[in-house]
Write a structure and sequence with these properties.
alpha/beta, five-stranded parallel β-sheet, three-stranded parallel β-sheet, 12 helices, 13% strand
Amino acid sequence: MDNTDKTVYFADERIKWFVEDERIRICGRESCPEALKIYDEFVPSAFDADYSRMDAMVLFHHIFMFQWLTPLKLSDVKYVEFTVPSTEGIGSIFLAYGRGKAFFAGKYGFTVTLKPGAARYSDSMMQKYCNIAYTPEDSNENNTICIVNYHAIMKMRYLRKEAALDDSIYTDNFLHDMKSYAEAVLKDKKVLGMLLRGTDYLVNQFGGKYKPVTVDMAIQEAEELLKEYNYDRIFLATEDKDILDAMKENFKDKLITVSQKRYHISDFTDEFKTISQIDRTLYPVKEDYDDFVEDVTVNYLYAMYILSNCDAFVYSCRCSGAAIVTQLGKDKIKRRYVFPTDRASGQFLSSIYGVPFLPIHV
């Protein structure tokens, strides 16, 4: 208490036996207001998506973040370079870059860059479609913070804020092509956009808010929403062939999608549990793999762009794609809804970035 001017909440009122301070408040663990919540045991935050909950070690890294990242004086820093693991998809890269810009550039004026040659995607491919800065030649150990612990930094509460993403993330030519395609697909119709994750999310048994709903639940909700809001069509984005087949069978010509590589659950094994692992086995030659990845990525970006232009957006669980669509479509999507992990509990966010979710049908 001697080292903070903040109000401090305790779950155990017996703290008052030992400390007398008007800034002390008592509340239950789950009823505290928006605040950092510190526990004495390890608290993973990735799957429950509550980045205000942490243990003492993570709190230490939050407080001494720059000492953790660099020995440089902040006045000497010019660049913050993200090293992106080759396992990360384009959605994860967009969010890292956008959140990095929002925090490091927005608050400190640093230029955020990606390390050349580190990501799954070639630098030339990324620069063909995306306005993302790569580390320039004048970057060196005396002016650059090099973030090599990608997953650790992306769990920092500072970077869990709204990403600095809008249509300017795309190159002009690519954005023009996507706009033309979206107009042709949507045709001024009232369209319900759905993003349904499956395959590797199911294989790896993701939990919490990252756990996808079943396709039967998605179909039930879509039927009710079509009836309640009179949507003309459903635009579906999914990498799961089983989900696509089930949705096609149920909604027939009301369903529209873009062409993209999709996978059956049966495609995954104990050895290959992620999409990127499967793709590398299918295309062992680097040139063939790069061509395949470019084709898949372009189709994915088209799908996310179309979703961001739909009248409503429904997604089956928290994922990078949902975050991108949410950000890019915040001024266009009228309603947004995420399936709760436990439907019966009725626990869900009422809005995000000021846009209300659709009502839950319990």
